[in-house]
Automatic annotation (TrEMBL):
Keywords: ATP-binding, Hydrolase, Kinase, Nucleotide-binding, Nucleus, Phosphoprotein, Serine/threonine-protein kinase, Transferase, tRNA processing. It catalyses: L-seryl-[protein] + ATP = O-phospho-L-seryl-[protein] + ADP + H(+); L-threonyl-[protein] + ATP = O-phospho-L-threonyl-[protein] + ADP + H(+). SMART domains: S_TKc (SM00220). It is found in: Nucleus. Its main location: nucleus. Residues 3-219 form the Protein kinase domain. This is non-specific serine/threonine protein kinase. GO terms for biological process: tRNA processing; tRNA threonylcarbamoyladenosine metabolic process. It comes from Actinomortierella ambigua. NCBIfam families: arch_bud32, PRK14879.1-4. Component of the EKC/KEOPS complex that is required for the formation of a threonylcarbamoyl group on adenosine at position 37 (t(6)A37) in tRNAs that read codons beginning with adenine. The complex is probably involved in the transfer of the threonylcarbamoyl moiety of threonylcarbamoyl-AMP (TC-AMP) to the N6 group of A37. BUD32 has ATPase activity in the context of the EKC/KEOPS complex and likely plays a supporting role to the catalytic subunit KAE1. The EKC/KEOPS complex also promotes both telomere uncapping and telomere elongation. Gene3D superfamilies: Phosphorylase Kinase, domain 1 (3.30.200.20), Transferase(Phosphotransferase) domain 1 (1.10.510.10). The lineage of its organism: Eukaryota, Fungi, Fungi incertae sedis, Mucoromycota, Mortierellomycotina. GO terms for molecular function: ATP binding; hydrolase activity; protein serine/threonine kinase activity. The keyword Phosphoprotein applies.
Amino acid sequence: MAVHQGTLIKQGAEARVYIAPFCGRKAIVKERFAKAYRHPALDKKLTSRRVTQEARCLNRCQKALIDTPTVYMVDVASSLIYMELIDGLSVREYMETDEGSTQAARTHIAEEIGRALGKMHNIDVVHGDLTTSNLLMRNNDSKSVVLIDFGLSYVSNLVEDKAVDLYVLERAFSSTHPNTEVMFEQILASYGTSCKASKQILKKLEEVRLRGRKRSMLG
């Protein structure tokens, strides 16, 4: 299947995302494109590495029963990943609906996010780009949170890397969703019960926050 048969739904700095047919169903096709400023051979090597790394992190999460899109096929030569199309809204969109703006819904979302991130960090996967646009709510009775867009993900057992992952999400919440401090604390509480190394990671998060505040003050 050629990508041009699909419908472009997102254009980012690193990749294009399409909805396209795959084996009789609709799927997401993520295409990483070449960077003109890089030497072609180096660009091909780096792009292939990123495609492989993203697919491996997704598969690692799937094996650990973390809700992520199922990978259908990886075409490294063409820099393509074919994966499950999730029926649902992003957490960002859901929180702006009447249903998603209730306290009960936000508590549920927070618990789901914290649990998912805790399980992800247990298997040493660092997402690298946690925002409420990269978290989806499945449109079913479970309303489970799905982690998507692992384009910057990598494997690391470092406490620092996992703390920074949480800090990126916290900054996304504060900039996109005002007055959600309580909700983020609920995320961290849920994370604390599901991540084995949460005590060390949350302590490191305090240090990361302090560094972030110092940078803000210095401009």
